[in-house]
Amino acid sequence: MDKSLRGSAQLLLWLIAVALLLRSWGIGFGLPFTYHPDEHQYVECALRFVEGNLNPHKFNNAALYKYILFLEYGLVYLVGRCIGLFRSVVGFEALWHTDPTIFCLLGRFTSTVFGTATIPLTYLIGKYTYGRRSGLLASCFLAFTFLHARDSHYAVNDIPATFLATASILLCTLILQRGSIKHYVLAGFLTGLATATKYSAALAIFPLLLAHLLSDPPRLRDIPAKLVNRKLIAGFAALGAAYLIGSPYSLLDSQAFVRDIRLLSVRGATGFKGLQIDDVSGWIFYLRTLNWGMGYGLLLVSIIGLLFAVYRHTKKDLLLISFPLALYLYLGRQVMFFARFMIPALPILVLLAARVLLLAISRMPLLGQAKNSVLAIAVVAILLQPTYSIIRHDYLLTQKDTRTIAKDWIEENISSGAKIIAEQYTPELSEGMYDLTVVGTMGLPSHRVEYYRKEQFEYLIVSSFCYDRTLLDKGKDEARHSFYQSLDAEADLIKAFKPYSGPTKPPFIFAQIYGPATALSRFERPGPVIKIYGLQ
Predict the structure, then answer these.
(1) Spatial separation of the C-alpha atoms in residues 204 and 506, rounded to whole Å
(2) Domain residue spans of the chain
(3) Where are the alpha helices (DSSP H) in 295-345?
(4) Which residues of the chain register pLDDT less than 70?
(5) Contact (Cβ atoms closer than 8 angstroms) between residue 34 and residue 104
(6) How far apart are CA 250 and CA 491, in angstroms?
(7) Is the pTM here over 0.90, yes or no?
(8) CB count, 10 Å around CB of 51?
(9) Residue 193 and residue 114: Cα distance in Å, rounded?
(10) What sign results for the dihedral spanned by CA atoms 500, 504, 506, 508?
(11) CA nearest 249: which of 201, 202, 196, 204?
(12) What is the DSSP string of 497-520?
């Protein structure tokens, strides 16, 4: 190995190590309480698989990540059974209700590993398309991309799907260069696994098709014949097989699968549970997401890189831009939009940024020998904002959540047996200690305060993760906000727990219900504002 290759390998290893640190610091946030609202969907389903029935029954999320967790939990159970920790599957599952720490940590660390492993994949895509320096710089950019690092802490499917989609695109670049049938099969197989992890990852089929068409560009009239090709057919066959391996009950329980896919389609067109996630269109929402998720410097250079790739439209350019553009076009037209949906585009976006930055600096003859210094300064300037966001985010995760602080205060200051009504995203009080009723995020405003008093509730607990939401139905939204405003006049505010200091509340975005996202410097800890009202 020559000196330059050795140096590249060492730098890549350092980037991987730093990325792993940034994606694992604070990974135990909230535990033993499960504050991330989506993790339970995956963990509970994986635990049910341990009983022997592998049908997920619900298909609102693809199944492969749940099966991965099932294999991990099964291994933990077998080891625990051998050393006498568990006597039965029932006892093992019961641990989720008493202390879910091991299950959440395994799921979160799985995402951390997938997130970190995406760094070298990004390097390889860059190496095979624009050169080793572009690959190294792209992997550096991804290692310090806030949205990618943030969501690598969570036991959900977005980061594993991103890894698999990125791996598929890597194989597509090899199809473009070499055209071997094994690359078709591997690219199709990885696309199938990505789709079985998150349905939107099926858009990785576009790089596969383009790699095939661009490897030997046909005339327009010959495209249909070009598509009937044994290599491409083998790739599609591998895609279908991999999908069914990762989500077999899409076929075995096709009625439930079709039902849930239709429901997802309806939500995409009409919104998520009647919520207005943001007051802008999906096209603007995802640009805003990338702005805080990448930092405005890295986003700006990525957009320039994307536009440059469109302008140049070489085979490599068209192959790479097809996936983030397809994802953006698909997501932008929907009403149900979440920040995490755009994560699979990040590896290609940072690669386009790396390529155009290197190209721009190389074409500045006046810089002379100072080009490397200018590049280093530019990289530091670009990464300053997202690096701060990652460090601040990870630090916040190590601080006690407002819900945990509120739980401690309640159990010290409110007598056991008290009748309490609370909405979601409030403290998880000790089971059996109180006469507790928990209602959904829309539940409390369905009645006036006087109703709860007549029902002899002594305390009412609300969360800003509920009252800061906005409904698409303006009439219902005004009624909700009117209810929350009436609390201060019609009930006694006994105690409030805030995740920030000072009188001014930081702006709320929906992504904050999963973890710290924006205005990070203004927060002192994770969690919503918790307010406890007395009704007697």
Answers:
(1) 37
(2) 3-18+106-397, 402-534
(3) 296-312, 315-332
(4) 1-2, 218, 220, 222, 366
(5) yes
(6) 50
(7) yes
(8) 11
(9) 14
(10) positive
(11) 196
(12) E-SB-SSSPPPP-GGGGTS--SSG
